[in-house]
Predict the 3D structure of the following.
Amino acid sequence: MTEVVLAAAPTQMLAERRRFRVLRKLAAHRSFKIGLVLVAILVLCAIIGPMLTGIDPTAMSIRSRFKPPSARFPFGSDQYGRDILTRVLYGGRLSLSIGLSVALISGVFGAAIGVTAGYFRALDPYVMRLMDALMAFPAILLAIGIGAALGAQASSIVVALSVAYVPRTARIVRASVLVIREMEYLQAARVSGAGDLHIIVKHVLPNCLGPLIVQLTFIFAYAILAEAALSFLGIGPPPPAPSWGNIIAEGRDYSVEAWWVMLFPGLAVSLAALGMNLLGDGLRDVLDPRLKIET
Amino acid sequence: MAEQPLLSVENLTVQFRGDAGWVNAVEGVDFAVGAGECLGIVGESGSGKSVSALSILKLHSPANTRYASGAIRYGDRDLLTLPQRRLRQVRGGEIAMIFQDPMSSLNPVLTIADQIMEPLRQHQGLSVQAARRKAIELLDMVRISDASRRIDDYPHRLSGGMRQRVMIAIAVACRPRLLIADEPTTALDVTIQSQILELLRELQREIGMSVILITHDLGVVAEFAQRVVVMYAGRVVETASVPALFERPMHPYTEGLIRAVPNLDEDVHRLTTIPGSIPDPSMSITGCRFSPRCREAVQSCLEKPPSLVDAGAGHLARCPPRIAAGGIS
Ligand SMILES: Nc1ncnc2c1ncn2[C@@H]1O[C@H](COP(=O)(O)OP(=O)(O)OP(=O)(O)O)[C@@H](O)[C@H]1O
Ligand code: SF4
Ligand SMILES: [Mg+2]
């Protein structure tokens, strides 16, 4: 009976089922699932949460300063009497967008630079020397410098962190390209008359996508942590608009009396970083098994 | 081969960038393949077979390769000096190539369909539907059963032999005039090997293409080729028609290779191999490059590089002492 059904299954469906192989493996991966759930909850909260509370995150109220967590202020209130829950929800929008932007920008530029260096070997020494020079600075120091130069605003954090992470991404992409370029299917594509652009788009990029995606999830996590660190150092997104980083930074002077001001955004940062890391681990196991053997 | 050959490689010297400057990987290589003919190229590992074959389509990476001399004559064109755009039309369209390792010749992230349709769409401008129909026909042609289902598979679902069939389907998709097969069966089981070679022979007849078959195995050459080129240490040491080569090998190296083929007529397999190994391309040897391994070397062999001499009837060998003695050892 089953055999008949299988034989009758249209080829299209079989092909599609194979295409979902990766998804099925991911669905069976425990830490990937935990990470995905964590990240999904945080993202959902950031998107729809602010609509639900209906409170202005910047609205001050002298009378309700430093209220500990209660029914009215589930996460407590800060020195201006603002609702921490609302601020954490809004802050998630900014912090997660910073993480996403840094990951996307590092991904695009890192891939472009890594493919250029790995594929066009003549350019490689120059490009990679420049990347090495950038990588010689610790990411946070580089970000502090750029952030200081561009002024304290969300976009300069994005630029600063992207500059810091592009070389690392480029390095990883280049390493995969160096492996891929020795594969006979590239030679075979050249034999059938394909040009460089076609080869890059159709053969090189898709084959280094796995390691790239893995790297980007980790960059997403780093960027959220770095945003908090930079805010702490006073070069994060400026108040009063909340980000997880600047809520923590503003709360630091009162950390003993009003622990809740720092605790909840701190938890959000940790959960986001943890979630992205778990997600990244899962993706790495499924998309890039080579890395697993090495570590 | 009285009339003009389909393709001829003339005095080809290819250099790679080494630690101490440019090193000749192959030097002064000459051979030609006629229309519809099968030319075998044999030689030990490292003798320059692949380097020569890849040069025909100028496939070496330009960053560390130099075509120091020579020409690849194809019709009235020289493929080495052809502009990139015209060269790309020849690749795949008129001259196709398959490689040794069918495991890495197919892109793991694309389906078989994607990969067979690529040259069809590129060179023949077929629509997606037409290319897909043609691709299924091609899979049938290379005897892949259940082609219309198999075509949507990813390469990892296929065995090595099947992948090599797919590679062949891709190679012959545009009915090339010449197929270069660089050790197409080395990575496969013996039974699969003969099936693949049989398939190549049938396709050659069907399409009327020429084949350059690169192999370690003189037995394969004996069975499939009409002419043969023997390479050693980056040089052609002997070239002849297949019967002439087996009947009267002129070069001691060729002789050694023939002796190394297990002789099925005899009860005892006398498998002799040539003692020693091929010299590294960067090693400088003044005289004959085979002289360190040659039992017949005389003083003159060590003094200057021997040239390829015609011993009559298109049988050339790079061994002056032998030719002077009439080819008999
Ligand atoms: N890209 C390259 N860069 C430097 N040297 C190379 C390169 N490709 C080949 N060589 C050298 O050129 C010589 C000839 O190699 P080639 O690959 O043509 O041998 P082959 O006859 O095809 O051997 P095999 O039977 O193992 O395939 C070898 O010494 C090899 O080391
Ligand atoms: S030229 Fe001399 S060394 Fe070289 S193969 Fe002939 S006899 Fe041997
Ligand atoms: Mg080879």
Residues 107-173 of chain B form one domain.
